[in-house]
Amino acid sequence: MGRPPCCDKIGVKKGPWTPEEDIILVSYIQQHGPGNWRAVPSNTGLLRCSKSCRLRWTNYLRPGIKRGNFTEHEEKMIIHLQALLGNRWAAIASYLPQRTDNDIKNYWNTHLRKKLKKLQGNDENSTQEGATSSSSQSNFSKGRWERRLQTDIHMARKALCEALSLDKSDSSANPISPILAQQPVTGSSSYASSAENISRLLQNWMKDSPKSSELSRSNSETTQSSLNNPSIGSGSGSSPSEGTMSVATPEGFDSFFSEGNAFTPEIFQVESKPNFPNVNSENGFLFQAESKPSLEESQVPLTLLEKWLFDDAINAPAQEEVFMGMGLGESADFF
DNA sequence: AAGAAGTACAACCGCCTTTTT
DNA sequence: GAAAAAGGCGGTTGTACTTCT
């Protein structure tokens, strides 16, 4: 027999997520970890389907997500990877760990596709070839399975890396995800990113809320600075209801925390810890797969396979260069 | 100033694969 | 092994915001 149904569609809320829902979700995941999405709505009381929760987490709340403008480098990466892999956004996103597939997809659809169309239009005007099109067509079909295979290998390596990293974390060493390790370790922890997301969201929300509109200007700054201020909430006895969250006081929001809700917004405290060690000391939860460990912390002897994986990842910037080095003409053949 | 058109992006939908019972 | 749900992915839509006329 199969499994019990995930969520009956009756009473399931749709549309934009509210900050309250975000907090509830983040707090729950902080305590229980991502995964088992089926249990999330019932355990949190969120009137969302499990799929929606997962999507909200992976696309918006997950730590380590970089938002905002794409850099020129990222843009080029996406263009080349799209030419190489097609619309396999998850695969492309695996090369840009700080971006979600949804983000990349959106950026492609809104910016890059038009940009390339323009460029291609120019190219066609300047080079009225047509002779190469048939040959490139054959190249495309010939190389398509190879590119797919290449992506799959990359994904497999990444998955293996993460799996190995988790094993290592068990033996007290911090997990190493080579792909993530490429990323420069920023001042704020990965956890903070999540808080930043919510703080930004709160600011927008306060801006929109007519009730709190008077407070919004000063308070949004306070909220932001509080969230970024290491001196706040570092376990110095600041209760959830005072400090950062109580600044924004739309109804039901303050009460959510002050009424001793099961999911306290510890997330706003953890971020203040310097070099967040991937462990919430209060509940022991590990953000293993999504942490950004530093390379030198791995002192575990490497097996050949692991070494191969790590070497490969460390050389990844060189791979990027390979992508970047590909002439646009070559990529254009794939279109 | 007002409406139209364009843009950006969060979220949903449906399909496919994987996992669980 | 089969059935059914969970999870994952890519395509698409809805809507808020911005720019143009």
UniProtKB/TrEMBL annotation:
Example of a GO biological process term: green leaf volatile biosynthetic process
Location within or outside the cell: Nucleus
Matching Gene3D superfamilies: Homeodomain-like
Biased segments, Low complexity type: 225-243
HTH myb-type domain: residues covered: 9-65, 66-116
Record carries keyword Plastid: no
Example of a GO cellular component annotation carried by this entry: nucleus
Residue ranges crossing the lipid bilayer per the database entry: none
Composition-biased stretches (Polar residues): 122-141, 212-224
Domain Myb-like: 9-61, 62-112
SUPFAM superfamilies for this protein: Homeodomain-like
Matching SMART domains: SANT
Keywords: DNA-binding, Nucleus, Repeat
Domain of life: Eukaryota
Residue ranges of the region described as Disordered: 118-144, 209-251
InterPro entries: Homeodomain-like_sf (IPR009057), Myb_dom (IPR017930), Myb_TF_plants (IPR015495), SANT/Myb (IPR001005)
GO molecular function, one term: transcription cis-regulatory region binding
Stated name of the protein: Uncharacterized protein
Species of the source: Solanum stoloniferum
Upper classification of the organism: Eukaryota, Viridiplantae, Streptophyta, Embryophyta, Tracheophyta
